[in-house]
Amino acid sequence: MGLNDPHLAGSIALNAENYRYFLSYSGVKLPLNLLTPLDPDELENRNTYFRALYDQAGHIVSCEKIVYGEVELAHRYEYSAAGALARAEIRMGDDDPTEILFDASGAALRS
After folding, report:
1. Residue 97: inside a domain, yes or no?
2. Please, is 48 exposed, middle or buried when counting C-beta atoms within 10 Å of its C-beta (0-12, 13-18, 19+)?
3. Fewer CB atoms inside 10 A, N or C side of the chain?
């Protein structure tokens, strides 16, 4: 999964110029709450960081934890027309992805 993920098509311009970078996140609820924005020029000497893409409504649609240049963890999010989280796909390394569906209020239905 990456910038050519079909779930992202149409929601954002698919290029690396649209990445936003962060040092960490807080909480356990989805979508992740990314903290401490980083400028791209701050990444050169950093071993671990998060990169994210947002849709035009400001919702995070893709989040990746980068460790030594490799994607260690990837989240993809889809939202309902009302803006509530509807689906999350979580991939850790080369493992099969885990899918979590959410109801209209954003509460998890199943994983």
Report:
1. yes
2. exposed
3. C
What is the total count of domains within the chain? 1
- Give the mean pLDDT per block of 10 residues along the chain (111 residues): 43 66 95 96 94 94 95 95 94 92 89 52
Range(s) of the domain holding residue 101: 16-110
Q: Which residues contact 47 (CB under 8 A, 6 or more apart)?
A: 67, 68
| Torsion angle of C-alpha atoms 85, 51, 95, 101, degrees rounded to 10 | 0
SS3 111: coil
How big is the chain, counted in residues?
111
pLDDT of residue 14: 47
